[in-house]
Amino acid sequence: MEPRITLKSVVQVADTVFVTIGFTDGDGDIGLSDSDVQPPYDTSSVYYHNLFYDPEELVNGVWTAVDLPYYYRVKVITPSGQNKALDGELKTAFARSFFPLPPLVAGDTVRFRIRLVDRALHTSNELTTEPIVLN
Prior knowledge:
About 0% of the residues lie in helices and about 45% in strands. The protein is mainly beta.
């Protein structure tokens, strides 16, 4: 069963943007352990990471992919017991210093395309944040 993600919030505090997504997964197989490094989770595989933030910048009215994606390994989140369904939130912080070079400046507009992959390699729906005008 594919995980499902929703956008909970995008909050900017000083030079940091906090993105919170909600997730549900009926199979309860979200996350990777430190020992998950054999195929298909090895470092040369797209599945080494399981949470993907692909930034885009608004350039002359056109959303343009920024070639510096933010990919993460969410740790294993598997409930105990018979009901393996998961429902939770993941919060990610992006400090201005993390944005691509040359550094984005106050007034630049960015957004993120986000997706989550479970251990069975099911990919969630993709969502896109609203535009974020950097402070």
